[in-house]
Amino acid sequence: MEVLLFLWISLAALLTAGANKANHDDEGIVINMLNASRLRMFVDELPNMPKVQGYDIKNGVPISKKLKIGMFQKKWKFHRDLPPTTVFAYGTSKRTATVPGPTIEAIHRVKTYVTWQNHLPKKHILPWDPTIPTAIPVSKKGIPTVVHLHGGIDEPESDGNSNSWFTVGFKERGPTWTQKTYRYHNFQQPGNLWYHDHAMGLTRVNLLAGLLGSYIIRHPDLEGPLGLPSGDEFDRTVVIFDRSFRTDGSIYMNSTGNNPSIHPQWQPEYFGDTIIVNGKAWPRLTVRRRKYRFRILNASNARFFRIFLSNGMRFIHVASDSAYNERPVVLKKLLLAPSEIADVVVDFSTSASDEVILVNDAPYHSQPMIQLTKSTEKS
Ligand SMILES: [Cu+2]
User: Fold this and answer.
1) Which residues does UniProt assign to the signal peptide (predicted)?
2) How many CB atoms within 10 Å of residue 341?
């Protein structure tokens, strides 16, 4: 029988342990901030986000498919000990919507059509900034959204221009809006893309609320011979981002600008103290002593991750973003900027230990941070 390993992914801010602290907002109201160091690491299992197939199979051949994917407000558990958080989530239904959203799987040269549907309520859950150019419906009701497939080579009408936003039921639409259904050609090389909200002035808050997900273009004829780990268990998308929370579980975003005397609300960047991987804070994963493929996306607003495996194992870097490398590169450390994707193979059969932490040591507000781990159990 194979030995099982736990891959504990803890991209954690190494915060000073302590009490939750109270902040004040601009009206002087007390905000009870969660101190992320109070959340126990490695208690939640790393989820595999649901998959949505962007093609049908007819007579054994993949053919194009039309999908409907909605945006819903719902509750999401980011950690066992954190109260449920109100989020905006993509999904084929409110019940199945997740943060991050489902992973869309497309096939090279087979078109995927998506009708993105806005089911969001009238008011945002985060403090959006009305003092910058922003999509604002005439009725002042509803949350403008539009979806951009990041890395996709598609026509402008399907590209999610910031001014092509729409509200619930396409009731109100931005000046460049043209169509309800987007066409993704999937004509480009196989690789990793991601989709996210892109509405003018609201992109930041809509992403922070949860509107983002992975998109894979596969090319079985080309990729089969590469012999990379495959199937849901061994080929996994890993979406990492940072958030801050209040003690009631809600997402916290400061609404005071960095230079409030110049601009009341503007902040160039968002940093959170809790690292979320596939929708869970510092999760863990049990792995077998074999090779795994991880398609790692940094979906943070501003944070960089420089990650390594605590027991000295290497990453075999096979692809980045939407293209394969000419040949694999073996790396000890991996630097990931916001929106960057690293597609790596990790061979746990080479592990000298039963646990490994995925550690992040990128500076963050002048503090060192993250971690990735692993542990074992005999089976
Ligand atoms: Cu993007």
Assistant:
1) 1-19
2) 24
From the CA of 182, how far away is ligand 1's center (Å)? 16
- Alpha carbon distance 343, 303 (integer Å): 19
Residues 70 and 190 both lie in one domain: yes
Q: How far is the CA of 148 from the centre of ligand 1 (A)?
A: 7
Q: Give me the pLDDT at residue 308, please.
A: 93
- The Å distance, Cα 299 to ligand 1 centre, comes to 9
Is position 125 within any domain? yes
| pLDDT score for 258 | 80
Please give the distance, rounded to the nearest whole angstrom, from the Cα atom of residue 100 to the centre of ligand 1: 14
Distance in angstroms (rounded) separating the CA atoms of residues 310 and 360: 10
Are 240 and 206 in a shared domain? no
Name the DSSP class of 40.
P
What domain range includes position 170?
51-221
**Ranges in the chain, pLDDT < 70:** 1-30, 364-379
In the reported structure, the alpha carbon of residue 185 is separated from the centroid of ligand 1 by a whole-number distance in angstroms of: 18
Given this model, what pLDDT does residue 7 score? 57
Identify the pLDDT of residue 319: 97
Closest CA to 77 of 63, 87, 64: 87
Q: What is the pLDDT of residue 15?
A: 41
Please name the residue that has the structure tokens 């299992």: 45
- CB-based contacts of 60, cutoff 8 Å, min separation 6: none
- How far, in Å, CA of 277 to CA of 282, rounded? 7
Ligand 1 center from residue 323 Cα (angstroms) = 16
> Same domain, yes or no, for 188 and 297?
no
Compute, in angstroms, the gap from residue 247 CA to the centroid of ligand 1: 30
User: Across-strand partners of 6?
Assistant: 355, 375
Residue 13 has a pLDDT of 44
d(CA 265, CA 26): 10
Q: Is 171 domain-assigned?
A: yes
Instruction: Please say whether the beta carbons of 289 and 346 come within 8 A.
Output: no
For the question of whether the overall pTM of this predicted structure is more than 0.70, the answer is yes
Q: How many A from CA of 150 to the centre of ligand 1?
A: 4
The Cα–Cα gap between 348 and 292 comes to 8
Query: Which residues, other chains included, contact 40 with Cβ-Cβ below 8 Å and sequence gap of 6+?
Result: 80, 81
C-alpha dist (Å) from residue 377 to 8, 311, 354, 356: 13, 17, 7, 13
- Rounded-to-integer distance, Cα 67 and Cα 181, Å: 9
